[in-house]
Amino acid sequence: MKVFIGYVSLSGNTEKMAVIIKNRMKAAGCKVYMERLDTVEVDTLKDFDLAFIGLYTWNKVALPYEANEFYEEIEQVDFKGVKVAFFGAGDLTHTEPCAAINILSDKKKEYGFHVFEKILKIHQESSTYDQIKKCEDFAVYALIWGNKRKKWRFLSWNRVLSIPKCQKSAYL
């Protein structure tokens, strides 16, 4: 399975989340491509079976400037059927936590993307084992969701779920 991970990070927390997801996808046997969103052409997402998009939230409620061009290009391509999962770090105490993720998620739904219903949001100042585990679990469940295999083949996912933690863990 080909997986794309695109992210924008200011403090480094969203990038660390992307690395954790990348390591988990590689451990599951996926071909993983990871890039910053400000260097990616939006139409390349059509080449992947599953995409993970990670953002920080600028000024509590806006998209980061690095993601503006990516956001605007979404309208120019037909993305019907492309599967995407969202994650990010932000201030979870705010009334609209990680609002940039919600803004991008809503636009992707509008233009035909299949969006994973669970969005991973981690508090920006946290660095606990539980949050690393949340990133790994999110990656596995999004992979299961993004996989088009028949029900009887999901027995093989028991192997994916029992893969030991990656050697090079990133800490939030």
UniProtKB/TrEMBL annotation:
Keywords: Electron transport, Flavoprotein, FMN, Transport. Residues 3-143 form the Flavodoxin-like domain. GO terms for molecular function: FMN binding; oxidoreductase activity, acting on NAD(P)H. InterPro entries: Flavodoxin (IPR050619), Flavodoxin/NO_synth (IPR008254), Flavoprotein-like_sf (IPR029039). PROSITE patterns: FLAVODOXIN_LIKE. Transmembrane segments: none annotated. It comes from the Bacteria. The keyword Electron transport applies. Its cofactor is FMN. Belongs to the flavodoxin family. This is Flavodoxin. It comes from Peribacillus butanolivorans.
